[in-house]
Amino acid sequence: MKLAPKLLSAVLMTHCALVFAKGNADTIFYGGPIVTVNAKNEEVQALAVQNGKIVAVGSKDSVVKEWQSNSTKVVDLKGQTLMPGFVEPHVHIVVTSVFEGLGLNLSNFTLPYDTKETLIQKMKAGLKNVPTGGWLFGFGVDPSRTTPFMSELTADDLDKVSTTVPIFIVNQSGHIGYVNHKALELAGVTNKTPNPAGGGIYVKDAKGNLTGKLVEPPTYLPFMAKMPNPTEAQLFGAIQGTMRKMASTGVTTASDMSVGGNFGVDKEIAIYRSIFAKNASPIRVRGYLFSEVLPTGYKTIKPNDGDDKLRFIGVKYITDGSTQGLTAALNQPYSYPKDSKWSGSLNYKDSDIYASMKSYFDQGWQISSHSNG
Fold first, then answer.
1. Which pTM does this prediction carry?
2. How many Cβ atoms sit within 10 Å of the Cβ of residue 165?
3. Which CATH class, in words, describes the domain spanning 5-84?
4. What is the separation, in whole angstroms, between the first and last Cα of the chain?
5. For residues 227 and 246, what is the distance between their CA atoms, to the nearest angstrom?
6. pLDDT tens digit sequence for 295-311
7. CA dist 204 to 13, 41, 189, 214, 225, Å?
8. What is the DSSP string of 141-172?
9. Topology, domain 115-224
10. Is residue 309 helix, strand or coil?
11. How far is CA 256 from CA 97, 269, 288, 314, in A?
């Protein structure tokens, strides 16, 4: 059966009217500055929402008159400002969730700063939370905020915490790690182990012995492979906690720049899909797959796979380290230590990274590059 054009038009107009029916807003906000950020950058008195969409802005009298019903929730801002949500273009949601939600937080941003000894005592206290067969995992140590200045942990230092429990600590920059000798043993990393591709360095002393310092995430992989994974419930809860924290600061969309960096690309994609399938995220997420762990020729998902709430859009590369850790690639040597000739290094040869990036770019992926130097 065909509908006459006029009848079809009438049906469509009726449908639109039902979708956004005046006098039936779900929520009306008023009582504080409402910043629209529209073409005129207007500041209005009231705003109405219906079916998850902003349907009206204007004076309080006009919005209330046209959109309030008996079921409308009216929110008095009491002088607070209502504005569009923030977009966080660069964060590591899963990594942050693991570090802050599941690891031992060794961050210290206030004076007095830690010494190696106070860090060792904090880690010893954290041992009580390590189950049998588990690892002591922590993050946040920062040599630039340690006394004496630029004091770094070594395997010998971490052995003072434990020689039987494997220990893996990540520097505040995320680009440097520290392990004890038990962790080196379990990971199978020895003095003869070659440095991994992607800028990884197993740091050695003048005699060629491992110091326990790891440079760049590729060196973390043998250790992470031996660490017990958190349960799905633990990981789910930690990620939700990070998302809620972001939402509480006004962030409504965030880009996870290292999807797959902890548990593999496919597993982390599955975790995200599970969270969003349960409508358990208060923010939208745009995912960038972590190039360091992408299998060669990866095509499991296509660029822009997903929807408005969760979408995977890019591939992330790390081209150098961090200035904080003295590993970013600079044009001139670092000013510390005095008379240093070290200027950092790039993680890839130009030809290698170009070929890798182009293969994903040609598929339609956005390319993101960490370049601190």
1. 0.86
2. 19
3. mainly beta
4. 67
5. 28
6. 888 989 999 999 999 99
7. 73, 57, 12, 10, 22
8. E-GGGBSSTT----HHHHHTT-SSS-EEEEET
9. Diaminopimelate Epimerase; Chain A, domain 1 (3.10.310)
10. coil
11. 11, 11, 6, 10
